[in-house]
Amino acid sequence: MARLEDLQQGAIVKGVLPNEHVTVVAATWLGTAGIELTYKAADGRLDNQILYRTNEPSLEIVTASLPWSFDGDSENFRLVSEAYRIRLAHLFDLLLAVHTSSVDPLPHQITLAERRGQIGISGYCLCSGTFDPRTP
Fold first, then answer.
1. What DSSP character marks residue 7?
2. SS in 3 state form for 2-48?
3. Which end of the chain has fewer CB atoms surrounding its CB within 10 Å, N or C?
4. Spatial separation of the C-alpha atoms in residues 15 and 49, rounded to whole Å
5. What is the arrangement of strands in the sheet containing 20-30, beginning at the earlier edge strand?
6. Tens of pLDDT along 12-61?
7. pLDDT tens, 86-96?
């Protein structure tokens, strides 16, 4: 909530127009309970409006900032990014279970696992685009 006294030249205000921020060009007091606000809308047009104390709850001064910031907790970011990396690891490493276990696979087991990764359960070969009847 902003007060009418906060509407100074150059301030960016939310609530004068619906769903739009305006930049204050001039503010002229009309007694103690009203102000004539001359503003510039987002599309560049100039306009003015009389605001009263009853309009104060809908007004908000917007600080000029970027829509994103880098002031979050870096440890939480690191934790979440690592969780996503682990969650999607199977897409990049078909032998993930073999590589992360303490079992040493034999060469024919690795070949079979690689072949199962290229040929899906239905027998459709992803690399050549054909059906392979040798798969279950």
1. -
2. CCHHHCCCCCEEEEEECCEEEEEEEEEEECCCEEEEEEECCCCCEEE
3. C
4. 12
5. 46-52, 34-40, 20-30, 12-17, 60-62
6. 999 999 888 999 999 999 988 899 999 999 898 999 999 999 998 999 89
7. 888 877 776 67
